[in-house]
Amino acid sequence: MTSLSGGSDNGTRAGEPPQHRVCARCGTETDSIPPTWTCSVENGTRRYFCDRCSRENLRAIESRLDSSWW
Ligand SMILES: [Zn+2]
């Protein structure tokens, strides 16, 4: 058995190679998602943001949450 360090829900699903990801905002590519990257699910589609964009994206997410709370 293999035990992945860190992530729990980031397991591999059949038919979908989890290796290559591209930042949905700036286009930065990565072969393996660092823990600093953020995965955001929008309309059933997974979007990945690099550590830089994640910080800015967090503000947007928080803003969205605030607006939907009101
Ligand atoms: Zn980015």
Describe this structure in words.
- The protein has one helix spanning 51-69, and strands spanning 21-22, 29-30, 38-42, 45-49.
- The protein has a two-stranded antiparallel sheet. Strands 3-4 form a two-stranded antiparallel ribbon.
- It has a domain at 21-63.
- It has 70 residues and is α+β, with helices and mostly antiparallel strands.
- It contains 1 helix and 4 strands; from the N terminus they run ββββα.
- The structure holds zinc ion (ZN).
- The site of zinc ion has 8 residues, from helix 1.
- Zinc ion (ZN) binds at residues 23, 25-26, 28, 49-50, 52-53.
Q: How many E-type strands?
A: 4
State the distance separating the first and last CA atoms: 47 Å
Q: Strand portion, in percent?
A: 15-25%
Radius of gyration: 14 Å
Q: What is the H/E string? A: EEEEH
Which secondary-structure class do the elements indicate?
alpha+beta
Strand arrangement within the widest β-sheet reads 1-2
Please give the structural blueprint.
Blueprint: E1 21-22, E2 29-30, E3 38-42, E4 45-49, H1 51-69
Antiparallel strand pairs: 1-2, 3-4
The structure holds zinc ion.
